[in-house]
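Homework help board

Subject: predicted structure for assignment chain

Our instructor gave us this sequence and asked us to write out the predicted structure in token form, then describe one feature. I got the tokens but I'm not sure how to describe them. Can anyone check?
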Amino acid sequence: MRKTLPIIISTLVLTLIFWNYNEEKILSETEFEQAVFYEIFPAILDSIYFYKRMTPPPPPEFFDTKEYDNSNLDKAIEGYKKTDKFKRDINNWKKKKNSLNRDKPLIYLVVSDSITRFEKADVYALVKHFKNQNIVLDSKKIELNNDFKIDINRLKANNKKIEFKYQSEFPKEREFWRTEYDFYIGAKIEFSRILFDKTKTYGVLNGGFGMGILNGYEFRIFIRKNKNDEWVLDKLIRTWMS
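My token output:
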């Protein structure tokens, strides 16, 4: 019994050490993913979000008439740009744009509270997109589908007027857009987790934003490390719109 007890104690100690090692490894994997997400977030935001108040005037309604179709739409737009109406519209837009640039009120983007798991389609999309790099995926990580909460304080935007709020602070579904607020909401945005290759040099995630009940987009976003060991946006593909 005296010989058995030290063996049991040694086994328990080794088990605890091994368990703690695995816990630290899992934690570091999550921390790595979060660090990448917060690093690449400003670039993604610049690519998917636009300030609709700053959007140039759209083509006039006569482009929707039978006089024009997709085959000669470019010609119609060029013709429109030569009209006095276009000159008036563009001058009014420039005045509005200058006014908005001087405007101090913040633009609030409403962010989903958590990052959701990636999709099975992302596995094939990642391999296909970076096929020239012959990337390999770690099968053990593909099943890692737990969500994690977004730290809103770590979200940064290149536009200094942009601030963020959690989606849980607002009404759900269509009531979100039907409710009046005493501040300006630019969009509602959400993201999936990042699926990396085995070397953690390439990755893919999904993102989306809505600017109204029937005004939304979803994207598949491919990212990679550059020569300076920085994460950059490689390509963004629109996968859905309403």
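Reply (TA_rk): Your tokens look well-formed. For the description, you could write something like this. Strands lie at 107-111, 114-115, 148-149, 162-166, 184-191, 195-196, 202-212, 215-225, 231-241. That's the kind of observation they're looking for.
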